[in-house]
Amino acid sequence: MRIGNPANNEFLLELNEINEKIQIEFLKKIIHETRSVNCDVMLGDSTTKKVKTFDIKNIETFFGNFDSRLSEWSSQGVTYSADDDLRRIFTKSEFKIGDYILSLHVSLQYRVLLYYKPIQKVIELQKKLAELIDTSGNSESKYEDESDRLIIEKLNELGIKDMPKQELFELFYNDEELATKIKKMIDNSQPQVIDIKEQKNQLFKELDNLLLETFHTTSVMIDEQKLVNGEEGCLCNIDLEFIDNGAKQGLIDASIINENTKSQIKQGIKKILDIILDNNS
Is the dihedral of CA 60, 65, 66, 67 positive or negative? Predict the structure, then answer.
């Protein structure tokens, strides 16, 4: 059962009131921690500009407080997930109270844009890469032509002629020794091209190491469906479940919860609010 859903039971209404305060204060905290700051970056054409970003470490610290302060709760800690430029930082915790489980899920979904660091080394590496591409000319296309010729020559030696591309792919996939042997033949036939390719790869690698991540989000509350759909925003869900024969059940009959258990559940939710309020002070 999601705390905050419509209810007519007095106890659940009390929990909903606390949860409403949690949602308000949680959003305030997210807005504060994702406040924008200006950042100098460099574009691919070596021009520089200012962009806005926020410090994701602030959110990591905020979420980490739930794990450290809810010491009796079980948690796997603050976790990141990524899907291309879409990122998520979240933590999930739960606390067993008799036959009930109180759980917390806080999350922020945001996007990452990549730029280069605004330093001279980026320009120098880009210049080296451009010069290398200019001097190498069409050597790589010649390399590919020569590669095709050597592959056909070697396959002819093996008595393999006019093999369809799919079967050729399967041949190299299943015969690693043959694939390695032919690659070595190709590389040995044109060492200068191989050297140029290695130089290019090294320059690209060095440029990748000079990339700068900037972070962007929309500071609004979203639900789990919007989270799954890839929308930016934050989420703070509190659930109460009943354990029946070892399985979690979402349907709760609040009238049968004893007073001691109710008190512990209420204190658990209040502790969440206290953590957020402490962070907002």
Answer: positive
Amino acid, single-letter form, for residue 210: L
Question: pTM to 2 decimals?
Answer: 0.76
Length of the chain: 281
* Backbone region of residue 148 per phi and psi (left: phi > 0; alpha: psi in -120 to 50; beta: other values): alpha
Averaged in consecutive runs of 10 residues, what is the pLDDT profile of the chain (281 residues)?
90 95 97 96 91 96 95 94 95 95 97 94 88 66 59 66 66 71 64 68 88 95 94 96 85 90 96 89 50
- Per DSSP, the three-state class of 95 is strand
Strands 211-216 and 100-116, by their bridges, are antiparallel
CB neighbour list of residue 6: distance below 8 Å, 6 or more residues apart: none
Separation CA 187–CA 67 (nearest Å)? 54
Contact yes or no for 2/254 (Cβ under 8 A) = no
**Which two three-digit tokens encode residue 185?**
């033949």
Q: What is the pLDDT of residue 56?
A: 96
pLDDT of amino acid 245? 81
Phi and psi torsions of 247, nearest 5° = -110, 145
At 14, give phi and psi (nearest 5°).
-65, -45
pLDDT at 142: 56
Strands 211-216 and 247-249, bridge-based pairing: unpaired
CB atoms within 10 A of CB 121: 13
Q: Which of 227, 259, 250 lies closest to 5, judged by CA?
A: 250
